[in-house]
Amino acid sequence: MTVKTKKPNKKKLTKAQLNKWRKQTNACEHDKVGYQALMDLANACFTRSKEDAWNIQRLSEVLKAQNETAKESKKGFSIIIDRYEDQIKELEKDIETLTMQRNESTRAYNGLAQFGKFAEDMGIDLQSAQKDLPEAEKNKYSFKQTDTLMESGKVKHEIKLTPNKKAKN
Q1: How far apart are CA 162 and CA 169, in angstroms?
Q2: 3-class DSSP assignment, residue 169
Q3: Contacts (Cβ under 8 Å, ≥6 apart) of 144
Q4: What pLDDT digit, counting tens, does each position of 106-125 carry?
Q5: Is 121 helix (H, G, I), strand (E, B) or coil?
Q6: Phi and psi at residue 52, to the nearest 5°
């Protein structure tokens, strides 16, 4: 099956329309455009190209200014990002330090609680012993507690109570 395509309809000009066109374009009898019509067309194209050149120049200046603004903004953003990255690093260090302090405090509390339970199991009355605590007599003893996390995951508690030199005198 073959498909036939239609040719576009060429509008035929009447003799009056053809003469009018020939007069407007100074065309000859062979329907070639005359010199004056070509000069008018060239002048119109030249005028239009001047306008387009002026518009292109203005648009290129606008784009150049926008490009410079974008570059300056990019520099400003990179400075701000660097500052925030530094702040984030400092905050992460603070978080790590505070987490370690919290863990040490929890271990110390657990150690003291265990020592209190051991003392009660041994029959020591902590309420009455509270009066004999080193802090009851100011600066008579030096009290130090250390808690060490072992590789096995267990916590080693050490408590040292030593008399101060001033208390001996």
Answers
A1: 15
A2: coil
A3: 159, 160, 161, 162
A4: 988 888 888 888 888 888 88
A5: helix
A6: -65, -40
pLDDT tens-digit series, residues 33-84: 777 778 888 899 999 999 999 999 999 999 999 999 999 999 999 999 999 9
The pTM of the full predicted model, rounded to 2 decimals, is: 0.42
Q: Do 159 and 115 form a contact (C-beta atoms < 8 A)?
A: yes
The two tokens of residue 115 are 């020592």
Task: Please state, in angstroms and rounded to a whole number, the distance separating the CA atoms of residues 166 and 141.
Answer: 9
- Alpha carbon 93 to chain centroid distance? 20
Q: Which of 49, 28, 24, 46 is nearest to 37 (CA)?
A: 24
Residue with tokens 């080693």: 156
